Amino acid sequence: MSKEPTGTLETVGGRARLTIVREFRAPIEDVWAAVTESDRLGRWIGTWRGDPETGEVLFTMTAEEGAPEDGMRIRECVPPRRLAVSTQVGDDWWDLDLDLAEADGVTTLTFTQPDLDPTMADSVGPGWEYYLDRLVAAETGGDVAAIDFDRDYYPAMAEHYRSQLSG
Q: What CATH number should be reported for the domain holding residue 19?
């Protein structure tokens, strides 16, 4: 895991597209389980309840104390390669895409938030770096609790994201 920011931003139609990549020495099915099974998700970000076959579940961020249960829509699910969801954040909905590929014993997870308000990039980018590093720790036996958002992610990574949109 790196405390250096790794995400990239590009502007598409006046909106920012955030992309962050993480690699795992694990089969694609194992990484898929880590990003789709409620108990595995609970180790690093949150849990869901409901019936995903309906296309909607309720999601609770367990990584944030007192977070409300919010709606999550499943836009596309192609196991074990692609999961595209829309998650409720207050009154807004955010699209989040996860694409997985496996080669030579390494599974690459590409996380994309394709329609990010550019004014939020300097906080949302560090936030997803934080959560994805928690995923890496959970899947590699690391100490998830030792990952400190305030110390290592925000505001430490904010300029990395601001500069990508201003350049």
A: 3.30.530.20
Maximum CA extent, the chain:
44
Asked, for residue 151, whether it belongs to a domain, the answer is yes
pLDDT of 55-66, one tens digit each?
999 999 988 888
Given a contact cutoff of 8 angstroms between Cβ atoms, the answer to whether 16 and 36 are in contact is no
Which candidate, 22, 17, 15, 12, places its Cα nearest to that of 129? 22
User: How do residues 16-34 score in pLDDT, each as one tens digit?
Assistant: 899 999 999 999 999 999 9
Beta strands in 25-167 (DSSP E): 46-49, 56-61, 69-78, 82-89, 92-103, 106-116
Q: Which helix (H) or strand (E) holds 20?
A: strand 15-24
Q: Is the pTM of this model over 0.90?
A: yes
